[in-house]
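Lab meeting notes turned into a lecture example. A postdoc, R.K., suggested we walk through two folding results consecutively so the class can see how the record format repeats. The first protein's sequence and structure tokens come next.
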Amino acid sequence: MAARHRHKDRPKDRHGGEPSRRLRPAGFDELGLRRAVSDRMLPFLVGAMAFLAALALGGWVAAAGLARHWQLGAAAAMTVQVPRPSEPAAQGGGTRVERVVTLLNSTPGIAEAQALTEDQLGDLLRPWLGAGVERLAIPLPAVIQVHLTEDGPDMTALDRRLAAAAPGTLTEAHGVWIARLSALARSLQACAGVALLVVAAVAVAVVAVATRSGLAARRDAIEIVHGLGATDGFIAARFAARATMLATLGAAAGALAALPVLLGLAQLSAPFGIPADAAAGADDAAANLLAALPPGLWVALPLLPLSAGAIGFLAAQATVRRWLRRLP
């Protein structure tokens, strides 16, 4: 045990310097880590993990962005159904649908109210009722699209006025759909978060296994260097530097490989998340493609190699120090 503690402090020469650093040429690999820790398998596995992590990050950011876009659109809209639209209104002049449209447009908190035409209503019902929707024998209610302002109307007072002008009129706010979209977005983000945790755990395991393999392959050299006075921290730092470099390079390659996939998916989802006028205003196809990727993802992707390097450093340090503590 005494000899064990003496090995913790590296002996110094008469000039006060550390012999291993003064005599070791730059880049000298005294532990043979270039052969012990493979520079092919570890970067490949970490790169695969980084590729999956990039896709999970893309799913996280896309789910949040699309849910935000859809929620804003649903919260700013409302649908009003007027049964028997061609009959006279109970209050005021004109038909029931005309009176409701006039009342809606004069209500504070409503930006615009417009009744759908018969063709628009047919197009809306055709996916459910088929091509013969125009030949339906039952009378269809008039459907009014309502766009709300940021504050929105007083729904209690609006329902009361609509019931007085055209009894039976139904208003449908999109609160239920907003809640469902929010729940869906949270579920997708939770799945992406779990995927990221699983990828990080697998990356830690990969680095630990590669480090243990290197320790086993260079056991004799490590024991000799350790017996000559190399500290546990010195040996762990050498392994950690090797693992950090390989993990960082592998993660950078994986992130770059995922970038074309993310750009393609972003281009496909752009019509659902980017306003049409903004998309049409982009003349440069390359700039439009790059703009389709959310800004948060451009920030997150460069962090993957840094995170992989940190995982490689910590996993290698912990593995080597645990292994050295078990030496006789």
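The second example is placed directly after the first for contrast:
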Amino acid sequence: MSLDAEVLIDWFADHARDLPWRRPECTPWGVLVSEIMLQQTPVARVEPVWREWLARWPTPSAMAAATQGEVLRAWGKLGYPRRALRLHAAAQAIAEQHGDEVPHDVDALLALPGIGAYTARAVAAFAYGKRCPVVDTNVRRVVARAVHGAADAGPPSTTRDLADVEALLPDQRAAVYSAALMELGALVCTARTPRCADCPVLAACAWQRGGRPAYDGPVKVAQKFAGTDRQVRGLLLDVLRGTAEPVAKSRLDVVWADAGQRDRCLHSLLVDGLVEQTASGLFALPGEHR
């Protein structure tokens, strides 16, 4: 199976978004920060926060010197705040174990706290130009359609997905090709309304040649937000980010009427290390008020 690498790389050169973490001057640390922030979060929301973080913490050691609370405040409303704590832990490990330089080897990246299979390969490829498969939702969809002739990739399979992309990678400029696959899925081969007329590999697309059959796999359950524990956890964290001092539980109680759900969410924040309780029974962001 193949998608013409030269065609796709040329398309990427003409159509890629000008994102700061793609620029030559971006450091591997900047790439790592972007990859963590971009997980389940749109580029438009990430870019201003990424710029603020890199200005404030231009190196892993700079972030490692910050408290967890400071990092969580700076994370703001990007969502899934455990990512901020994982990035902080990774920064500490990089500063202490790797001379303040982000590792370039996939296995060394995987050994960092909170760095998973996707992030390790993305950093190796996009920060260091390594030839390794990088698979996200967009890439899976492009491969499903263009290579396998299916409307959607269906449930993920790490082994299969990595093997699919590995087989497509050219020997030269593989990292650029990976970025191009990702961009094609984000801008053209989108989930709901693919812009097939604008696709550089339209002639080679198995889904097009097969008449664009409808997806017949397992139904995806749309994620909701309103009323979920995730929403309540965010509201509780908003209170703590908005004050410099620890707060009494009564300040937290007003954010959500359902006491059972609210207390469950507060407990989960404590367990996750996103909130701490002081000796006097007040609540604060971690590392700020021991």
